[in-house]
Amino acid sequence: MIDFDRIRPDRLPALLRAMPKAELHIHIEGSLEPELIFKLAERNGVKLAYPSVEALRAAYAFTDLQSFLDIYYAGASVLLKEQDFFDMAWAYFEKAAADNVVHAELFFDPQTHTERGVPMGTVIRGLEHACRRAHAEMGISASLILCFLRHLSEDAAMATLEEALPYRQHFIGVGLDSSERGHPPEKFARVFARCRELGLRIVAHAGEEGPPEYIRSALDVLKVERIDHGVRCVEDPALVRRLAAERMPLTVCPLSNVKLCVFKTLADHNLPALLKAGLVATINSDDPAYFGGYMNDNFVQTFAALPQWGAREAWQLAHNSFEASFVPEAAKQAWVRQLDQVFAAAAV
Ligand SMILES: Nc1ncnc2[nH]cnc12
Ligand SMILES: [Zn+2]
C-alpha cells in the first residue's frame, strides 16, 4: 500500500513528471511544431499562408474546435513523403520519452493526406517505422489508431477503411474525429460495424463540444471501448453513472479544452468531478503543438490549478491510463508495478 499522505506537496511536480504514464489521445498531426512545418514546407516546396514561424504561432488563438481545425489541416499540408510522416512521429516520441510516456496510442487522419493525393501506404509506413524505432531505441511501446473525419461522408470513411486494409497489421483500431457538432456518431454506424467485424478496437470523440447524446450513441451504436474527451457527460447524471459502472474510459485533454474554450481555465475544468464520480478518466495532450504542451505540461499545469489534488490523484490518473490502454493485461500490470515503485520511493 502506498501511503499517499507521506508524499510532500512540494514533491508533486517532480513526481508527475517522473511517473510512468500512457498517452491515449494524441493526434500525431497535432504534434507538428511550427518549426517542423516550415522545414517540411521548404523541403517539399509547399507554400504556406504565414511568412514565419512566429507569425504562424501567433495565429494559434482559437475560439472553438472549428477555428483550430482550419489551421490544423493547413499545417498538415506540408506532409507529402514517407520521411515526413516519420520525422513528425519521431519528434513526438522524443518529447514523449522525456515525459516518461511508456506507451502511446497515436491517432492519425489518413483522409487529410489521401485527399491531397498522398498514398495511404506513404502515411502508414512512415508512422509505423517511427513506432517501431521508438520501441527499439526508446523503449516506448506505440500503436496506431486510424481516425475517420466526421465532417466527411460515411462512404468516404468506408473507402478509406478499404484503402487501409492492406496495412491492417499496422493499426490496432479506429476512431472518429474532426468537427463534432452536426456529425453524430450514428452517421458512421455501418463503417464502425465493419470495423468491429474486422476485430479493430473502437474509440470515438464524443462530448467535447457535442451533447451527451453523442456519447450515448458512441456507446450504443458504434460500441466504443473508450470515449475521447467526453467531458460533457456531466450534463447527464444517468450517463455518468453508466460510464462509471461500465468502467468506460474518458481520454480527457485539459490544455486542449481550455485552448478551444470548452472550459475558461484549468481551475474550471470538471476533471475533479469526473474522478470523484469514479470514472476512468485519463490526462492526454490531444494536439500538443497547438495547445501549449505535451503530457507533462498537461499534468503539471492541471495539478497546479487544482489545489485539492495531490499524489493520490496523480497515481489514479496514471493507473487509469494503463487500465484504459489497448495492451495485454501482463503489460499493464508491469507498468503499474513501475508506477507503484515510483510512488513508494516518494513516500518517505
Ligand atoms: N480536439 C479534437 N477534436 C476533434 N478532432 C480533432 N482532430 C484533432 N484534434 C481534434
Ligand atoms: Zn482529439
From TrEMBL:
Its cofactor is Zn(2+). Residues 20-341 form the Adenosine deaminase domain. Substrate binds at residue 287. Its EC number is 3.5.4.2. Binds 1 zinc ion per subunit. It comes from the Bacteria. Keywords: Hydrolase, Metal-binding, Nucleotide metabolism, Zinc. GO terms for molecular function: hydrolase activity. It catalyses: adenine + H2O + H(+) = hypoxanthine + NH4(+). The active site is at residue 208. The keyword Cell membrane does not apply. Catalyzes the hydrolytic deamination of adenine to hypoxanthine. Plays an important role in the purine salvage pathway and in nitrogen catabolism. Belongs to the metallo-dependent hydrolases superfamily. Adenosine and AMP deaminases family. Adenine deaminase type 2 subfamily. This is Adenine deaminase. It comes from Ideonella lacteola.
